[in-house]
Structure formats: structure tokens, C-alpha cells
Specification:
The structure holds 2 protein chains of 2 kinds. Chain A is mainly α. Chain A has 3 domains: 3-152, no CATH class; 177-277 and 290-302, no CATH class; 316-544, no CATH class. Helices cover 71% and strands 2% of the residues of chain A. Chain A contains 27 helices and 6 strands. Chain A has helices at 9-31, 34-37, 50-68, 78-105, 117-123, 129-152, 155-173, 175-184, 187-207, 211-231, 241-246, 258-274, 276-288, 291-343, 352-366, 380-402, 407-426, 431-434, 458-480, 483-493, 495-500, 505-531, 541-554, 559-573, 589-603, 612-618, 620-629, and strands spanning 42-44, 48-49, 247-248, 255-256, 446-447, 452-453. Chain A is globular. Chain A starts with 8 loop residues before the first helix and ends in a 10-residue tail after the last helix. Chain B has 15 helices and 4 strands. Chain B is mainly alpha-helical. Chain B has helices at residues 16-37, 49-54, 61-92, 99-120, 122-125, 127-152, 163-184, 211-233, 235-245, 247-252, 257-283, 292-305, 310-332, 344-358, 370-373; strands at 189-190, 201-204, 207-210, 285-286. In chain B, the strands form 2 sheets. In chain B, strands 1-4 form a two-stranded antiparallel ribbon. In chain B, strands 2-3 form a two-stranded antiparallel sheet. Chain B has a single domain (60-373), classed as ABC transporter involved in vitamin B12 uptake, BtuC. The two termini of chain B are 12 Å apart. The chains are: A mainly alpha, B mainly alpha. The interface between A and B is large, with 64 and 65 residues.
């Protein structure tokens, strides 16, 4: 019996199409060098490298799509879907084999630089062309079938399966952070967490209505926590056996061992399946909470993050702290750009100009280098007001000419301003002040009175950055529902209507630019102090794009979204001139940025953690269509 | 589907923005005039580039002529790129940021054709054939890339809020740029030197001009005329104009909108491909970042000429080319600013801002579809 007989011609055709796309995916990731470039990095020690993971993912995706592509009314059975997946997998495998035969037969490296002998070895599993072809087709069939099979599971099982695999990957990727935490965690920090956690739990339960008691209690708990953590910082908890067991040293960095991966997978799987009922109940309770009650718990959540921010840097070590402070700087800029794009809907592509203005103002005013004509040698705190002032002026200078322009002209003009700023800072014309291509050097550390924050002191820098981030987040949060915040959102939805309703467009736009500029300027100032030296090359258009990508991925218009975006993008992939946790990605960072932008815009324009209002706006069209289909909007209303 | 008819925009008071814009307008004018003519009679003030030339210490007459011609050559390539922006903006109403990458793809891929010809000796023995074929390769590549971008991304986004296609095209631009880097590496590809026939200078109407620059100017002018005839006279061209005028009505009249929009991207891509080869002929080196600045300048040219306006794109391109080649020396040098050639791009971008302030609809006026006129 032919199991495919039950499926319609269309399903098979679309399976073949998806399979071809999958095959193209295989060729793409191989030819741009990802398979080889990421091949060094093992995720699970002997069996899975990041490079192979890309290929496996392509196969699973194709199978899943092919299986899900069968029309609901088709009456396609589970077996039929799996067969569709296999059809897709084999089709993709055939295309991939054609590619393999081509690169094994001809030397194409002259043109396609990344199709190297090493790549061919990898794709052939070091066994020659025959194996390569067999693996491409057989593996394609297997993965396609598996992908389709996953799609036929119950939602719970599917979530458990994919979620657990994701956990394995996360634990593998976060190797640096996790080993550091387990190695360094001491009794002090542990107790501090406990004290703050328990106190805030008790406070929220019993005194949730009185903000004064809450704040006071939490503050006290934090003070006690800090004291305890300092007093007992010598007593290590002795958990280093966990990372020693879980990770193993390999050429491309430390990788998860197979047994550790299995444990993580099983634990996550069991937890998902066993606690599913409880998770649902929690979610239902959360949905049923009164707004005031919900705010209380949101407050608690903020407390948790503050706790993490205060105590984690103590044990994270310099590498991770450095990474986090870079992430924090980008988060600061992201919060600023979020005001401009997310709240006010103005696509500013020259955002790096404000960052550069902040950095240069700070650098020029504080630098002790004598190479330049003009060096007032202020301290950080004396220069900070001037940084803000310069940012405000820059915001007005950029904002005013573009106020009357159409949205997309605004984008390109701001892009132009960004480039103008960079070239001027670089030019010989201003080199007396800005140092030209050599930049400004010898930017002094920050004096806090009781402590000197040197750029090399990663922990102190992180605390400083986090403090500014917290301030920026607070300001953004307060702005969101304020009068000006509401006029920004009205303007974003429809400028003309907003103006008719009495929103002062000029004021609203300028304020958005200025607020964004201030946050970026302060970010720039911190950047200057952190590195002690700045060069015009650090302020290229890529910075603007990076910040744009992180707010798009995270969720425009939503503060937690921006934070998630910054952690995922900068923390893992790396910022414009720093690498993230996955150093192997550095070379493909911008390719991935582009792909992510495309993917998010096409499939999920509101981001991972969307702002509810913006999501509604972005899907307005669909909502209107749905309503129209249901006959809720009469034909006559169209003007 | 507007539920409420808006009142006519009320007349604005002469506020902060107006005074700022007038200050910029007047300031820019004064800056340019003083840069060219100086302030006569003030010792120690800016001399003015014109008087520097006349008094024999500034740029010589021949140098001005060469700058002017190279500006024209550069500008005609900007014009070719600008067409793609202009056509797409006229029809779909968004800036296709990826268009610079379309240009780059043609330049980069055609390098391999040109290189193969040069190795085989055909580049020298049959220059017209070789160059023609190289241009065909570039046109094909750019067309495919342009049509694919539309098919994969932009088609799904019609009718979505304005920011979305714009951000998508930025993403597309990065995706294409770094895909090409991944495929062909990040080294500079050096085109073979222009064939012997195109070496040296020719004299046209008594003006000596580099033959490569002449080729660029002639090829772009011819392509422009051909394209103009295509749009003005053929059935497909008429369909393009119809869609640029009003997409919905055109669809009702039986125009296949999807196909014509694809065609629009294809035409823009083909023009960018030609520009890619010409660019490589002039500057010899191509690279995966080659598309960035010409892309932005091409868009600038489209705006300067009046977006949606084909003749405007060409005129705008020439204007931008001239401004950035002559401008730094003419205006900035007159002020005594050092190393003005570094500031070429600053001049071009300032020109964009100034045009949008002085005359937002461009030199020849913009032509937008009903939907985009809003």
C-alpha cells in the first residue's frame, strides 16, 4: 500500500518545494562558510558541532514545514505526514548531493572562497563523496521524517521535546557564565540572595499595599545582603564539581559532555511534562489577577532583577562582567532608540551620531592627553552635564530639519547625519580638537569619592553601567504612560489625527529625538571612559544597525523586550565591535543580523516580547480583514 | 479605510521650525557664496575659490574641467542607480535600501566574467564583445537579485505599516551584503584594466576627456534613452506607468500587478547592473562593501531629482556627482578648510538635507502613486 496515496497531489508538490528550499538552505550555510566556521565549536562533545547543528536544523525545518503543509481537510494521517516529511528530506538531500558532487569534482575555491577542502571533508564526514551523498539523502530523509513527526505530536509533547533541546543548547552556549557561577559562588552571595528573596516574598505577601514599607524593607534587605555577601565572600560553596563534570575542554572551546546533555534534556523534559498542570494553573491565576495585584508582582519581578544586578557581578569574573557591561551599553542605547522608534515611530538610522557626540564630548573635556589644542581636563561628573547638553543640541540639530519629512526620508537623512558626524570627527578639519583618525586618548577614570572606577575594573564598570541602565529604564517606564508618551504613541499611529486631537507634533518629535540623544550620549560617555581611548572607527553605521536589530528582535516599544533583545543579540552574538558568548559567530554576525531583521519583519514584526499596543497596530490590517470577513464592517464605510 | 475625513491641514504659525529652516537656508546660501567668491576687501577672511583660481594659486582651469567631467561620469552612474530607487518608490512607496547591494552584486559577479576574459586574452582582442558580455552578466545577476528580494520579502509586506518594508529592506541589504562576502570572500577584486582602445584621452568638441569616462557617460545616456523609450512606448511600460499612477485602478483594468512590480524591480536591477560594470571600469576595484555609499548617493540622487521621476533620477544623479566632485574644492576650499577631499561625502549628504529643506519635491518634481500621495 502506498501511504502517499492518501495525500493529495498538492501536499506532495509543496513538500517537494519545501525540500528544495531546504536543499538551498544546506547549500547556503555551506557556501557562506558557516558549516566550516562553526564546525570547530562543539555543542555536545563528540556528536554535535554548531556547524552540523545548522544542517540538522535545516532538515528538521523542511520536514516540519512539509508535514504541516498538508491541508487540514486532506485527511492526511500521521503516517502520511511523516512520509511528506521524508519526501521533502529526500528532495533536499538530492539537491544537496548535486552540490556535493559539484564541489567534489571541480575546484571552485577561486570564486567561492569558502568552499574549501576542509568544508568538503566536513560535508563528506571525512569518508569521501559516496558517504557525503548517502548522508545527505539518508540524513535528509531521517530528519525530514523526524521534523514531520514532531509536528504530529500533542502540543505538550512537542513543547517538551523542542523546549528540552533548547535547554540543552542554552546550557551549552552559556558555558562560560554557568561554569563561572558554579565555581565562584560563595556562601555570602548565596545567603544574600536568600535574604533578599525571602524578605521580598514576605513583604509582598503581607505589606503589598504600602509602597513605603515595601521599599524600605527591600532596601534594608539589600543592605543586609550586601554586608553578608562581603563578610562571607571567602567561603566557597564548593560546587565546581558540577561544571567539571558537565563540560570538557575541546579545540573550539569547552563543550557539554554527552552525559550532561542527556541529564539536562531529561530533567527539562520531565519538568515540562510533570509541571504542565501547575504551569497552566499559574498562568490562569496570573491572567485572573487584578491590575493592582499584578503590578505588585511586577514590582517583585523588578526586585529580582535588581537583586541579580547587585549580587551576580560579584561572582561573574572579568570576562563575563566585560561582556555584560558591553551589553549594558547597548541596552542603554537600545532604550534610547526605543523611545525614538518604539514610542514615537521615527526611524532614526543615524543614532550612532548621538553616541559619538556623547563619547567625543566626554573624551575631549576630560582627556589629559596633551596632543590636542584644547583640553580642559574636567572630571567625569563635571563633564557629564556638558555631554547631556551636547546631546540635546545634537538632537535638536538633527531633529528640526527632519520634522516635516516623510518617515522614509527621515530614515535616510538621519543616516546621512550619522555618516556626516563620523567623517567630521575623522577629518583633518577638526583634528585639532578630535584628534582625527588617531582619536582621543588618556580619558581618565571616574572618581566616585570613595572609589575610582577604572576602565579595566570590569566589575565596577558593570555596576556603573547597570546604574545608568536602571535609571534609563525607569525614565522610559515613567515616560511611557505620561502625557508626552501618549502623544508619541498617538503620533506613531497617525500623525494627522494626533495633530487634530491637539498633539503638538513639533514638540513631540523634538522631545523624542532629544530623549533618545541624551541616552545615547550618556552611553557614549560611558563608552569613552570604559575604553579610555576613542577612535572614529568605533562610530560606524553598524552601531546604529546593531541597536536597531536589538530592539526589533526584542520588541519595539517594550522595555523588557529591549532588555531581552540586548542580552540575546549583544550577549550571545556580539555587538558591533565586540564579540559575544559565541565567538564563532563573530564573522557571521552581520549576516545573522540581516537575516534576523528579515525574519522578524516578515513573521513577527512586534518582536519576541511585544508591546501589546504596538503589536495590535502592526496587525491592524489583519484585524480589519478578519472583521470584514465576519461582516462586521459594512461596505459603505469605505470612503 | 478612513472612517473620518480630516479637515484641511491648518495653516501653521511661523514657529521655531520655520525660523530654524530659514536660518539653515540663508546660512547655507551665504556659506556657498562666500566659499566661491570670498568676502572681497576683507583681509584674512575667506579668499573664495574663484579668486584663488584667478590669482593663479588655487585649482587650475584644467583641473576644474577634469573634476567637472569626472563628476559627470560619476553622476551618470548615480543616476543609473537612482532609477531603481525612484521606480520602486514611485510604485510601492518605500526606500529599497537593498538597492545598493543589487548594484554591488552585479559589479562583484561580473568581475569573474571580466577576469576570465582577461585571462583568455579576449578582453584585449575583442573588447566590445567582452565588455558587452560582462555587462550582460552583471545585468543578469542584479536583475535576479532584485527580483528575488521582491519575491521573497517585499511582496508579502504590501499594505503593512510604513516602517516594516523599510526595516525589511535594511535587513535585506545586510543579508545580501554579507551573503556575498560569505560566498566570494572579503578581498578586493581588481578588475582588469580597461582594454587598450579605452586608454588615454579623446577630444570631443575641443574638450579632452578620458576615454573610460566618456564610455561611462555614453553608455549611461544610451541606456537611459532605451529605458525611457521602453517605458514610454511598450505595453509593459504603459502597465508600469499605470501602476505607478494608481495600483488598484490598474489592477481593475486588467494589469497583472505582481508581474509588473517584478518587472519594475527587474528594470531597476538591470540598470544597477550596468552601473556596476561601469563603476568597475572607472575604479577597477570592487568589494562586498562597494554598494553602500553609491547606494545612499543613488537614493540621494533620486530625491534630488524628484522621486518617482525617471528623468529626475538621471538629472539628480548628475547633480549629486557634480556637487560631490566639484563642491569640496569650490566651497570648502574657499573657506580655507584643510584636506577637503575627505569631506566629499559630507558635501553629498549636506546636499541631500539642503535639497529636502529648499525643495522637498526635488528638482523636476516628484511623481507618486495615489496611495503614496496620501
Amino acid at each position: 500500500m502506498n501511504p502517499l496515496a492518501a495525500t493529495s497531489q498538492d501536499s506532495v508538490r509543496s513538500a517537494v518545494k519545501v525540500g528544495l528550499l531546504g536543499g538551498l538552505g544546506y547549500i547556503f550555510v555551506s557556501a557562506v562558510g558557516m558549516v566550516e566556521g562553526l564546525g570547530e565549536k562543539n555543542v555536545i562533545d563528540p556528536i554535535l558541532s554548531l556547524g552540523y547543528l545548522m544542517l540538522i536544523w535545516v532538515g528538521l525545518w523542511a520536514g516540519h514545514r512539509a508535514g504541516a503543509g498538508a491541508l487540514p481537510g486532506d485527511g492526511v494521517s500521521v503516517v502520511g505526514r511523516v512520509w511528506l516529511g521524508i519526501v521533502a528530506g529526500v528532495t533536499g538531500g538530492l539537491l544537496a548531493s548535486a552540490f556535493l558532487i559539484w564541489i567534489n569534482t571541480f575546484v571552485v575555491r577561486e570564486v567561492f572562497t569558502n568552499i574549501s577542502p576542509a568544508l568538503i571533508e566536513l560535508l563528506n564526514l571525512r569518508q569521501g563523496l559516496g558517504t557525503g551523498v548517502a548522508v545527505a539523502i539518508g540524513g535528509g530523509a531521517l530528519l525530514g521524517g523526524a521534523g514531520a513527526a514532531i509536528g504530529t505530536l500533542t502540543p505538550l509533547m512537542r513543547r517538551a521535546l523542542t523546549g528540552s533541546f533548547l535547554w540543552v543548547l542554552i546550557v551549552g552556549f552559556l558555558e562560560v557564565i554557568l561554569s563561572q557561577i558554579f565555581r565562584e559562588i560563595d556562601l555570602g552571595v548565596f545567603l544574600a540572595f536568600l535574604i533578599v528573596g525571602v524578605t521580598s516574598w514576605i513583604l509582598l505577601r503581607n505589606f503589598g499595599d504600602s509602597q513605603r514599607v515595601l521599599l524600605g524593607g527591600l532596601l534594608a534587605a539589600f543592605v543586609v545582603g550586601v554586608l553578608v555577601s562581603q563578610a562571607l565572600s571567602e567561603v566557597n560553596l564548593g560546587l565546581r564539581f558540577i561544571p567539571d563534570f558537565a563540560y570538557i575542554n575541546r579545540v573550539g572551546g569547552r563543550a557539554l559532555t554527552l552525559s550532561a546533555a542527556a541529564i539536562v534534556f531529561l530533567v527539562a523534559f520531565a519538568a515540562t511534562v510533570l509541571f504542565d498542570g501547575r504551569r497552566r494553573a499559574m498562568r490562569a491565576r496570573l491572567a485572573a489577577l487584578e491590575p493592582a495585584e499584578r503590578q505588585k508582582w511586577a514590582f517583585g519581578l523588578v526586585g529580582v532583577f535588581v537583586g541579580l544586578g547587585v549580587f551576580l557581578p560579584m561572582i561573574l569574573g572579568s570576562v563575563v562582567n566585560e561582556l555584560l557591561s558591553t551589553t549594558g551599553l547597548f541596552l542603554l542605547m537600545g532604550l534610547g532608540l526605543n523611545i525614538v522608534i518604539g514610542y514615537a515611530g521615527l526611524l532614526d538610522l543615524g543614532y550612532v551620531a548621538f553616541f559619538a557626540v556623547g563619547a567625543y564630548t566626554m573624551a575631549i573635556l576630560t582627556s589629559t592627553s596633551t596632543a590636542r589644542n584644547w583640553a580642559p581636563e574636567l572630571s567625569f561628573w563635571e563633564a557629564l552635564p556638558f555631554v547631556v547638553l551636547a546631546a540635546v543640541v545634537a538632537g535638536i540639530l538633527v531633529g528640526t530639519p527632519v520634522i516635516r519629512m516623510r518617515g522614509d526620508y527621515l530614515a535616510i537623512v538621519t543616516l546621512g547625519f550619522g555618516e556626516i558626524a563620523r567623517i567630521l570627527f575623522l577629518s583633518e578639519w577638526f583634528s585639532g580638537v578630535t584628534g582625527g583618525a588617531l582619536g582621543v586618548t588618556k580619558i581618565p577614570p571616574i572618581e566616585l569619592g570613595f572609589y575610582t572606577v577604572k576602565g579595566t575594573d570590569t566589575q565596577a564598570v558593570l555596576y556603573l553601567v547597570l546604574a545608568f541602565v536602571a535609571l534609563a529604564a525607569f525614565v522610559s517606564y515613567r515616560l511611557q504612560d505620561s502625557r508626552i508618551g501618549r502623544s508619541w504613541m498617538a503620533m506613531r499611529e497617525d500623525e494627522e489625527v494626533a495633530e487634530t486631537m491637539g498633539v503638538n507634533i513639533v514638540k513631540a518629535k523634538l522631545l523624542a529625538f532629544v530623549m533618545g540623544a541624551i541616552l545615547a550620549g550618556v552611553g557614549g560617555a560611558l563608552f569613552a571612559v570604559k575604553f579610555g581611548t576613542i577612535f572614529p572607527a568605533s562610530f560606524s553605521i553598524i552601531v546604529s544597525i546593531t541597536v536597531l536589530v536589538l530592539i526589533i528582535v526584542g520588541g519595539m516599544g517594550n522595555i523588557p523586550g529591549v532588555a531581552v533583545g540586548a542580552l540575546v543579540m549583544i550577549g550571545i552574538l556580539g555587538g558591533s565591535n565586540s564579540s559575544g558568548l559565541l565567538r564563532e559567530f563573530a564573522e557571521f554576525k552581520l549576516l545573522i543580523y540581516g537575516a534576523l531583521m528579515l525574519y522578524m519583519m516578515l513573521n513577527r514584526p512586534e518582536g519576541l516580547l511585544p508591546s501589546k499596543r504596538l503589536a495590535r497596530e502592526l496587525h491592524q490590517e489583519e484585524a480589519v480583514q478578519d472583521a470584514w470577513l465576519q461582516g462586521e464592517i459594512e461596505q459603505g464605510e469605505e470612503d | 479605510m478612513k472612517l473620518l475625513k480630516l479637515p484641511q491641514q491648518r495653516k501653521r504659525r511661523f514657529g521655531f521650525v520655520d525660523s530654524f529652516l530659514w536660518a539653515v537656508r540663508i546660512g547655507a546660501l551665504v556659506f556657498v557664496v562666500v566659499g566661491i567668491f570670498g568676502i572681497p576687501g576683507v583681509a584674512g577672511g575667506p579668499e573664495g575659490s574663484l579668486f584663488k583660481t584667478l590669482s593663479g594659486e588655487g585649482v587650475s582651469g584644467e583641473a576644474w574641467r577634469d573634476l567637472f567631467i569626472s563628476g559627470l561620469a560619476q553622476g551618470s552612474m548615480y543616476g543609473m542607480i537612482a532609477l531603481g530607487y525612484s521606480l520602486v518608490y514611485g510604485v510601492l512607496g518605500f526606500i529599497n535600501f537593498a538597492h545598493g547591494e543589487v548594484f554591488m552584486s552585479g559589479a562583484l559577479v561580473s568581475f569573474f566574467a571580466a577576469d576570465a576574459f582577461a585571462t583568455a586574452g579576449i578582453w584585449e582582442s575583442q573588447p566590445v564583445l567582452a565588455l558587452g558580455f560582462t555587462i550582460l552578466v552583471a545585468m543578469a545577476t542584479s536583475t535576479i537579485v532584485a527580483v528575488l528580494t521582491e519575491r521573497i520579502a517585499y511582496r508579502r509586506l504590501r499594505g503593512s505599516p510604513r516602517l516594516i518594508p523599510l526595516i525589511t529592506s535594511i535587513g535585506m541589504s545586510f543579508f545580501i551584503r554579507y551573503t556575498f562576502r560569505g560566498l566570494f570572500g572579503d578581498s578586493f577584486k581588481t578588475y582588469p584594466a580597461a582594454p587598450g582602445v579605452l586608454e588615454g584621452r579623446a577630444t570631443i568638441f575641443g574638450v579632452e576627456i578620458l576615454k573610460t569616462q566618456l564610455t561611462v557617460i555614453v553608455v549611461t545616456a544610451v541606456s537611459m534613452v532605451v529605458l525611457y523609450q521602453f517605458v514610454a512606448r511598450t505595453r509593459m511600460g504603459r502597465a508600469m506607468r499605470a501602476i505607478a499612477e494608481d495600483r488598484e485602478i490598474a489592477a481593475l483594468m486588467g494589469v497583472n500587478v505582481d508581474r509588473v512590480i517584478s518587472l519594475t524591480f527587474a528594470v531597476g536591477g538591470a540598470m544597477a547592473g550596468i552601473a556596476g560594470v561601469l563603476w568597475a571600469l572607472l575604479f577597477r576595484q570592487v568589494h562586498f562593501l562597494t554598494g553602500f555609499l553609491p547606494g545612499i548617493k543613488g537614493f540621494t540622487a533620486a530625491v534630488v531629482g524628484g522621486i518617482g521621476n525617471m528623468a529626475g533620477a538621471y538629472v539628480g544623479g548628475l547633480a549629486i556627482g557634480l556637487v560631490e566632485s566639484v563642491g569640496p574644492l569650490l566651497v570648502l576650499d574657499g573657506w580655507g578648510i584643510p584636506a577637503v577631499s575627505q569631506l566629499k561625502d559630507v558635501v553629498a549628504f549636506s546636499a541631500l538635507v539642503l535639497v529636502l529643506i529648499y525643495r522637498p519635491t526635488g528638482l523636476l518634481g516628484e511623481r507618486l502613486s495615489v496611495e503614496e500621495r496620501g
